[in-house]
Amino acid sequence: MCRGLDALPITCLERAKELKALFGSLLHKSEQSITSQAKKNDKLRLNVDEPLKWKESFDKLLSSQNGLCLFRAFLVSEFSEENIAFYLACEDYQATKPSKQASKAKKIYDEFIATDAPREINLDHLSKAITKENMEHPGQSCFDLAQAKIYTLMEKDCYPRFLKSSTYLEVSRKAKTC
Fold first, then answer.
1. What is the pLDDT of residue 41?
2. Angle, nearest 10°, between helix axes 65-77 and 166-176?
3. Residue 134 above 60 pLDDT?
4. Is 120 left (phi over 0), alpha (psi -120 to 50) or beta?
5. What separation, in Å, do the N-terminal and C-terminal C-alpha atoms of the chain show?
6. What is the Cα–Cα distance from 77 to 143, expressed in whole angstroms?
7. Contact 135, 113 (CB under 8 A)
8. Per-position b or e across 97-130, b if 16+ CB within 10 A of its CB
């Protein structure tokens, strides 16, 4: 179930706006003034080529903090933010100490996978059943199948739409002209 823009962390929304504004200002400023602006504000440090690298692969987009924020904001506008939220929750889960995995696994399962979960992700019946079975003895890999399915869904569906979105096209166009 979508919770709209309110579900997106405010820092991510602010960052997406800053990125858009920064790339807009890049068109009008010299390289020297960009460097001095970046030194004044750490939040606005951004490699001009960064948006162009996001197009190279989905992994490059996800490994960029700026790219991830812009992609997440895009998913909110597409009413599918639960996919990246689930993917990131799984990444966090894998780094969780074994003593805390059971409670964290239940929380992730209840939020994203259970029938009628508040942010239910779109999983096929078999993947859902296997993940439910994994919940009986949650280990580090209990969400691997579901995470892989959602990753593939985002890579094959959401990512190409993001690359065609007006926000990405504008940011990448501005990066190319700098």
1. 40
2. 150
3. yes
4. beta
5. 40
6. 26
7. no
8. eeeebeeebeebbebbbbeebebbbebeeebbeb
The per-residue pLDDT for 46 is 59
* Alpha-carbon span 154 to 145, nearest angstrom: 14
> And the tokens for 133?
């079975």
Q: Which of 3, 176, 11, 154 is nearest to 71 (CA)?
A: 154
Q: Tell me the three state secondary structure of residue 77.
A: helix
Mark out the alpha helices in the chain (DSSP H runs): 10-26, 31-40, 50-54, 58-63, 65-77, 81-94, 98-108, 125-134, 144-153, 159-164, 166-176
The two tokens of residue 166 are: 């007006």
Average pLDDT on 133-144 reads 95
For residues 114 and 120, the answer to whether their CB atoms sit within 8 Å is yes
- The whole-model pTM stands at 0.75
22 pLDDT more than 70: no
Task: Specify the length of the chain in residues.
Answer: 178
